[in-house]
């Protein structure tokens, strides 16, 4: 069985060996066991479900909250000749219907679903008729309310167990505390499950947490010293541009990235950084998921992340090639204060959450008793401006509304335009003969795409405009015209988050919001913030502090973090001081002032500390106010 897994790995991925724990996880899955895999960022989690799924009969259903990552994985699988499809928010009912049919009757091997889709009766009913070999749950920590990134739609995953009770689950995550590990297994109803966990210690990473008044200057000096490729994480979109421009002005090849950019621009910026055309990318936390760039020499945070889980994931994008790299967190007291203020603002009163629901329904013109299943592009900035409310508590209100099953909100993701003919080939040919206007467009569609009569295909209107020597707007009008004539379905591209109403609209005063749950989440978040503060204030070892937080015991020092380096430096100074004290006192006895003044290494505090240590050890003697070195008789 292991040799077959390795053969698949070589055939499709070109690797000669598995990474640590991958083969053990795959073997567990092939034995039909519920399995939890904790692998670090860049540890190769996707291989753990893709390789066994290719050996098992039937389809593997993958649940992921990251739509952009789902799309990338589907694209990569298709390039390898493996049939895969993704269903997520923003797709039309017809598109979903066709994709699910192909999963039941076609050759689809992987179905990627966003968790919100499990609210759909259509999806649940179709999954019942699929031959499912494996359920793979990516970012599995999202199912736990004790985790740092709880996603209410993940609670729907228990439905999968009801639909296929004998199909094993593989849950995957990079970060989970012991409480979250237990919660994942409980929520997914693991039966005799196995847990595989790599150490959270990354020996090649020199973690640093620096209290710094001049962040920009320190950042510049570090980049100039370290060189190579790196990521700088900042708090907001404005800062991405400001910091990138600062670096460019100082001769560093840099660019900025955030979720507010259109998909094509984000892709170009990411590719430039991946190809080392740009050395440094300055980004919000929207950047990095699914990116596996091995030669990242530094990841700098110039603000404090919300949790140690988030920090560990983002910092872990450094040094994936195993060579020395530096995750550095720079902060000021004002950053610590702001983090706490944001925490307080993230748990608004119940009345505010109810008001946001009422305003959402008005914003999208949903009538009372209507709206179930309706989804819309959602611009939260415009929404908040319209109703004069702050974004942070509004975002939290949306999450609590989602948790209680009123709405579903997806991430911002680019969905290209899609097209499908709704008539057969003979009817289309008759239309072409009668319509010279549409004939060139139809011919180009048929030459460019296969399967356009069976399922939706992604299209690029700009490419059609270029080939047909027409304007972009004219091409869009023609695609729209084919839809108006009921000859085809045309779904224009979108690049916005999707908001879906899961229940008919009710009067906001009758809207149930679980206040107990909100208080529990607030308590969890408070513990996470205190853990971040404890990490910043740690005096032992950064790696040990991270391991301790994730429930891993390790008494060894990493020897490469800022704390270990400072300790080594202090020990080196103390060693040199001991030698110098011995030389001076062997020459003559001295008062404390004479001895401290004549020592050339360290500051006065360090000098006095070492003298006291030598006194305690009995190597130095004190008599009548004079110090001398104890000499053997």
From TrEMBL:
Reactions listed under catalytic activity: Couples ATP hydrolysis with the unwinding of duplex DNA by translocating in the 3'-5' direction
A Pfam cross-reference name: DEAD
Coiled-coil positions: none
Keyword Hydrolase: yes
GO molecular function: helicase activity
UniProt key word Plastid: no
EC number of the protein: 5.6.2.4
Keywords from the named record: ATP-binding, DNA-binding, Helicase, Hydrolase, Isomerase, Metal-binding, Nucleotide-binding
Domain Helicase ATP-binding: 26-194
SUPFAM superfamilies according to UniProt: P-loop containing nucleoside triphosphate hydrolases
Family matches, as InterPro entries: DEAD/DEAH_box_helicase_dom, DNA_helicase_ATP-dep_RecQ, Helicase_ATP-bd, Helicase_C-like, P-loop_NTPase, RecQ_Zn-bd, WH-like_DNA-bd_sf
NCBIfam families assigned: recQ_fam
PANTHER family: ATP-DEPENDENT DNA HELICASE Q1, DNA HELICASE RECQ FAMILY MEMBER
Sequence similarity: Belongs to the helicase family. RecQ subfamily.
Protein name: ATP-dependent DNA helicase RecQ
Naturally occurring in which organism (per UniProt): Sphingobacterium griseoflavum
């Amino acid at each position: 069985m292991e040799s077959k897994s390795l053969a698949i790995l070589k055939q499709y991925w070109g690797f000669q060996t598995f990474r640590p724990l991958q083969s053990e996880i795959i073997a567990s899955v092939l034995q039909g066991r519920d399995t939890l895999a904790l692998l670090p960022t860049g540890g190769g989690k996707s291989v753990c479900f893709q390789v066994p799924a290719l050996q098992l009969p039937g389809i593997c259903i993958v649940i992921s909250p990251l739509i952009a990552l789902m799309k990338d994985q589907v694209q990569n699988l298709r390039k390898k000749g493996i049939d895969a499809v993704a269903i997520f928010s923003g797709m039309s009912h017809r598109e979903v219907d066709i994709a699910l049919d192909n999963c039941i009757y076609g050759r689809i091997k992987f179905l990627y679903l966003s968790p919100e889709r499990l609210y759909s009766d259509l999806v649940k009913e179709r999954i019942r008729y699929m031959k499912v070999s494996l359920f793979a749950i990516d970012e599995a920590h999202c199912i736990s309310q004790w985790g740092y990134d709880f996603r209410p739609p993940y609670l729907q995953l228990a439905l999968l167990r009801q639909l296929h009770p004998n199909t094993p689950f593989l849950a995957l995550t990079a970060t989970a505390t012991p409480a979250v590990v237990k919660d994942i297994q409980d929520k997914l109803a693991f039966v005799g499950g196995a847990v595989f966990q790599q150490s959270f210690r990354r020996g090649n990473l020199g973690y640093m947490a620096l209290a710094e008044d001049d962040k920009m200057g320190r950042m510049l000096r570090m980049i100039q010293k370290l060189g190579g490729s790196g990521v700088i994480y900042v708090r907001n979109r404005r800062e991405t541009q400001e910091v990138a421009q600062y670096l460019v002005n100082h001769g560093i090849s840099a660019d900025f990235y955030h979720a507010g950019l259109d998909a094509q621009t984000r892709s170009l910026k990411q590719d430039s950084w991946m190809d080392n055309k740009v050395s440094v990318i300055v980004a919000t936390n929207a950047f990095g998921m699914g990116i596996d760039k091995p030669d990242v020499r530094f990841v700098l945070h110039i603000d404090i992340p919300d949790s140690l889980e988030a920090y560990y994931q983002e910092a872990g994008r450094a040094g994936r090639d195993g060579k020395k790299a530096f995750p550095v967190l720079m902060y000021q007291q004002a950053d610590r204060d702001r983090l706490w203020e944001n925490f307080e603002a993230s748990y608004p009163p119940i009345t505010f959450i109810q008001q946001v629901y009422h305003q959402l329904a008005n914003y999208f013109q949903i009538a009372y008793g209507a709206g179930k299943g309706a989804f819309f592009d959602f611009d939260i900035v415009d929404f908040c401006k319209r109703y004069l409310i702050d974004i942070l508590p509004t975002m939290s209100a949306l999450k609590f509304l989602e948790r209680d099953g009123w709405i579903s909100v997806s991430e911002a993701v680019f969905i290209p335009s899609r097209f499908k003919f709704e008539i057969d080939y003979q009817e289309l040919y008759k239309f072409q003969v009668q319509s010279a206007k549409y004939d060139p467009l139809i011919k180009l569609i048929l030459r460019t795409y296969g399967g356009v009569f069976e399922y939706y295909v992604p299209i690029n209107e700009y490419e059609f405009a270029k080939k047909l020597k027409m304007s972009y707007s004219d091409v869009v009008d023609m695609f729209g015209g084919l839809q108006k004539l009921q000859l085809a379905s045309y779904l224009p591209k979108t690049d916005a988050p999707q908001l879906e109403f899961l229940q008919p609209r009710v009067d906001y005063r009758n809207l149930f919001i679980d206040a107990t749950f909100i208080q529990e989440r607030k308590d969890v978040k408070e513990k996470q913030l205190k853990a971040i503060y404890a990490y910043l204030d740690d005096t032992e070892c950064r790696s040990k502090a991270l391991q301790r937080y994730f429930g891993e015991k390790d008494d060894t020092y990493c020897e490469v973090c800022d704390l270990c380096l400072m300790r080594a430096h202090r020990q080196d100074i103390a060693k040199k001081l001991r030698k110098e004290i011995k030389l001076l006192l062997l020459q003559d006895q001295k008062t404390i002032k004479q001895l401290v003044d004549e020592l050339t290494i360290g500051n006065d505090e360090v000098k006095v500390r070492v003298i006291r240590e030598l006194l305690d050890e009995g190597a130095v003697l004190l008599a009548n106010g004079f110090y001398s070195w104890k000499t053997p008789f």
